[in-house]
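Page header: ASSEMBLY MODEL / two components / 950 residues total.
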Amino acid sequence: MTYFIDRRPNAKHKSAVNRQRFLERYRKHIKRSVEEAVNRRSITDMERGEKISIPTKDISEPVFQHGPGGARNIVSPGNKEFLEGDKIRRPGGQGDGGGAGEGGASDQGEGADEFAFTLSREEFLEFVFDGLELPHLQRKPLKSLEEIKMVRAGLARDGVPSRISITRSMREAYARRIAMRAPIKRALKEAQEALAAEERKDPVLRNPARITELKAEIERLAKRIEAVPFIDTYDLRYHQLAAQPQPSSQAVMFCVMDVSGSMTQNHKDIAKRFFLLLYLFLEKHYEKVELVFVRHHTAAREVSEEEFFYSRETGGTIVSSALTLVDKIIEKRYPAGQWNLYVAQASDGDNWDDDSNICRDLLAKQLMPQLQYYAYVEITPHEHQSLWHEYEAVAAQFPERFAMRQIVDAGDIYPVFRELFKRRLSQTR
Amino acid sequence: MSVARKPIATGSDWNFSVLERFDEELARLADEYRLDTYPNQIEVITTEQMMDAYASVGMPVGYHHWSFGKQFLAVEQAYKRGQMGLAYELVINSNPCIAYLMEENTLMMQVLVIAHACYGHNSFFKGNYLFRTWTDAESIVDYLVFARKYIAQCEERHGVHAVEQLLDACHALQNYGVDRYKRPSPISAEEEAKRQEEREAYLQTQVNMLWRTIPESSAGASVLPGSLHSDEDPLGLHSGGSYPPEPQENLLYFIEKNAPLLAPWQREIVRIVRKLAQYFYPQRQTQVMNEGWACFWHYTLMNRLYDEGKVDEGLMLEFLQSHAAVINQPGFDSPHYSGLNPYALGFAIFMDIKRICESPTDEDREWFPDIAGSPWRETLEFAMRNFKDESFIQQFLSPKVMRDLKLFLIVDDDQTDMLEVAAIHDDRGYRRVREALANQYALSVREPNIQVVEAAIRGDRSLTLHHVQDNRRPLGRSVYPVIRHLQQLWGFPVHLVSMEEGRVTRRYHWPIEDDNSDASQ
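Prediction written out in full:
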């Protein structure tokens, strides 16, 4: 007795719960691997999974086993040369390598290798954002720069000759011709009938004057019919274009970071998370996101991502140098009319004292009018310095588009974003 | 033999109606060979579903635990990197006998798998004494459903973490959760659920009874209300003597019945793990026989199909190729060697039994006077029904198979510098090789022999176990994590003593004691 059942349509992912349990249990290990991966990878390269390795001994499921040592008998196949009583050197030296190979049992127990598996993209991101206490990222509408795009919008009576709609114009003309000729034709017909009736009369009774009159009338009407123009200016129809505002689909994100001596690698790692978060968010919103890395100490320079995060510099700090550079880059490469401009700045709050008010002026007058958003994070547990206070003034001036936060550790990063989303959301309503 | 070939189907594509027709033919042939099987339930599944099935040890339903997730990730990783092909089939000892077939399999593979699993393994499950004794094919799926529900309920009530910890501890001991001598009674899930409630109440009274004696001897312990009725002391604990009166090999059973602090639901979970371990217990002891038997039958049935012209030459060639791969046994020095292949060994022995029955040589008559020349089908059935790997090899491994596989015995003694070849496949060595190989499959040799010898019910409530050592083989490093788990279940200190020939060789304690002198109490 046999039953065949096609189970293929059944649910897959039967192991999903167990998989989650496993990930949960080894959260610490996995997080460490993910953190390493985040530091290693480029910001633009976060949207894929990651291979994770955990030392086998950390995840073993212990059972009572025989350890190495003592005397054991091993039966193996494939004897070619041995005779009873032969002595053989131990393979693999004298270490604690177990017996000559007790089959499957021993290489599971003490193996030094790693348990490797692959995190899916979603799981990877979840771990990336784990320390950030991030709720589910939702696509919320950001107000974007609006670009005017012309779209076809029906027909109009006026326009340029190149946009004439010939079929519609001809149709209008045809209708007009019918309309204009109809009363004349009717009058013509009447005149002809009257003339015919007159001519059918007895020659004695004919009124020659009337006949002449009618003939003249007929001739005049025929001329009028011919005079109706085949096409007239007001027959013409033009394709119409309407100006429609379109959200721009490209954005550029400037990452600005202080790389003076006071910024440690730890600061930079936190900053990287912050930039990463903003990037992921923008990436969800725009079709194309470009990244520009600007780092500065006393002078600013545009650099590659690698250099941005990992090379060290020393020296003082002049923030305005970076802002000036950003402004120049915008002017040269990212005209504000075509790009959504975002600036994210990370710093430990240090700045050359006289420079801070320059920064404020630069921001308030030059940059802010062009930018969609400016996010500033200060990674420091210490007192705020002049830069923060000057920025507070800017924030007061542009409450919609300027966010600033102090970050002590990675967990503080998220509130900056929450603020960003919330405000934007209420604005669009 | 020249037969007009009327193959049921050709090519490598299959569909359900073709499979059904093949199954009819196989069923007819199996019937001719008097193979006694459960009804078959053949389920076609996808690769992913096969990985799921792998991860849950083939159980169609299982409770949730991280270790199954680990298993799944390991399988997935190995499969994706192409290090491992998935099994073509997976079969579950249940009634009806559930077999999973992968949709990717070719027509030949599906037919092979049906022959192998649905007639080979199936008849083994139904016939072999270990399966008949230890498992109950009727109720296993029900029981799994019950277990899953119960554990999910516990997770809801007591938290996932608490349940997980308990399961970790139980899993560490699951190889020691088998009653080797008593036969369990089969019951259905409904009954199980009903009984489980009664048991909860009853078990607790049992435990209380056992521990009730404590106040008498240890002054500080809390006195249970209404205790000290010595006429209610069926265990005779007041009269002295140690508990348990005899060493207990079933550690999980002992824990379930005697651990003083476990809550009723915890005892039930211990029981679930124990029951499932018991279900898998025969499989661990009959791998060679089970696979050998299934290979023997797929080989026999496929050849019959060919002889009757039901399959074409192409399919048969494909079959022979994959059959050869399955029963391939690389030599010990081959880079592909990973121990003895149970398929190869089992298949060789069963084929050889048939040969001994049909055309015995003088050697066979000397070695197997009982079966040489006997009807092969009956002899094979007898061998399948009444043995496990250990005794099967001891009984039926013939000199010819030893010669074919070129088996040899090495003694690896850590007190000597060199390995010694103790016996090879010659007249002087056959019996030693066979004996050693049989031992290699004996669970009692493969796994350390550990038993509970005393629960100090009048003292500090500590639990003492003995490890009976043989050939100076010590316990592996995993012993500490395991006794830590044991201690978590028991709730009081655990001592494990390794003994060889009555002499203590090593002591393990959890919690680890500061004192190294280890004076026994």
